[in-house]
Design a protein that fits this description.
The chain has about 300 residues and is of the alpha+beta class. About 35% of the residues lie in helices and about 25% in strands. It has a domain of about 100 residues: Ku70, Chain: A, Domain 2 (Beta Barrel), CATH 2.40.290.10. Helix 4 runs parallel beside helix 6. Belongs to the prokaryotic Ku family.
């Protein structure tokens, strides 16, 4: 594997141990990168820490972390004090339990990593763990000290390797109940739900991340190219929002009756057809009467006696 491991250690399941490496699965390195530059000189700016009261630059050796206990009042924490209380890692990713795949709410997913054997001798043990997870359709929950912090990690089988996803702590995930508590109940007409179902069915597909466009990054890249080539680019057109009822919006989205305009056209067409049919009825009746009279006069008369 060409990429460099961000962490190396051992995956442990009881007495089964294999050397593994974690590799970043998600990276923003391919995005357009912008820097802060001095408009006058064109030189790149460097970031420096400044004392908020004196305005003077504070050099690295004078910088220290602090916890604010009151406004402007901090408890200072020296680097060696922090290092002393920080949990020490033993380079072990220890599997503690197994869960059915899909049981962990993805709100708890933090960052995914590729997990693979670190050497040839570890591949057999690694394969046993991977195939065990795959056959049983379970994920493993493991613990480790990663990047100086104790973390819980969800491990799942993926192709020939494993995906290790660090998990958010429970206190980091905000309450859904609090987020949704003021959403009022809405009474919906049956047609609305039928239209919503129709829209979902007609737009159903498969997950294809390669089709997703990062329009912000694309726009920045195009802007950079245009400035390099000395040309101007037209700003994107703003979409005009029409004010329509919820039902009409659903109808237009579903392509059913074309919304309010089509509904009006349909009603007008229906009325015109009704009027035309009403006008045709007397004419057809008169024509039928004439045909009947003509038929009677043309009939042969029977001679008497």
């Amino acid at each position: 594997m060409a990429a460099r491991a961000t962490w190396k250690g051992f995956l442990k399941l009881g007495e089964l141990v294999c050397a593994v490496g974690l590799y970043t699965a998600v990276s923003a390195s391919d995005r357009v990168s912008l820097h802060m530059v001095n408009r006058k000189t064109g030189n790149r700016l460097s970031r420096r820490f400044v004392d908020s009261q004196t305005g003077k630059v504070v050099e690295r050796e004078e910088q220290v972390k602090g916890y604010e206990v009151d406004s402007g009042d901090y408890i200072l924490l020296e680097p060696d004090e922090i290092a002393e209380v920080t949990p020490k890692g033993d380079k072990a990713l220890t599997i503690e339990r197994f869960l059915p795949c899909g049981e962990v709410d993805d709100l708890y997913f933090d960052r995914p990593y590729y997990l693979r054997p670190a050497d040839q001798s570890s591949q057999a043990s690694f394969a046993v763990i991977r195939e065990g997870l795959r056959k049983q359709k379970v994920a493993a929950v493991a613990s480790a000290v990663l990047f100086r912090r104790p973390r819980s990690v969800l491990i799942r089988a993926h192709d020939e390797g494993l995906i290790a996803t660090t998990l958010n702590y429970d206190y980091e995930v905000r309450s859904a109940q609090e987020a949704f508590e003021d959403i009022r109940e809405v009474k919906m007409e049956p047609e609305m739900l039928d239209l919503a179902r129709h829209i979902i069915e007609t737009k159903s597909g498969r997950f294809q991340p390669e089709t997703f466009d990062d329009r912000y990054d694309d726009a920045l890249a195009e802007l950079v190219r245009a400035k390099m080539e000395g040309r101007k680019i037209a700003p994107p057109k703003k979409s005009s929002a029409k004010v329509v009822s919820l039902l009409d919006a659903l109808r237009e989205s579903a392509g059913v009756a074309g919304g309010a305009k089509a509904a009006a056209k349909k009603a007008a067409k229906k009325a015109a057809a009704k009027k035309s049919a009403a006008g045709k009825a007397p004419a057809e009746k008169r024509a039928a009467g004439k045909a009947k009279a003509g038929k009677s006069s043309a009939s042969p008369t029977r001679k008497a006696g």
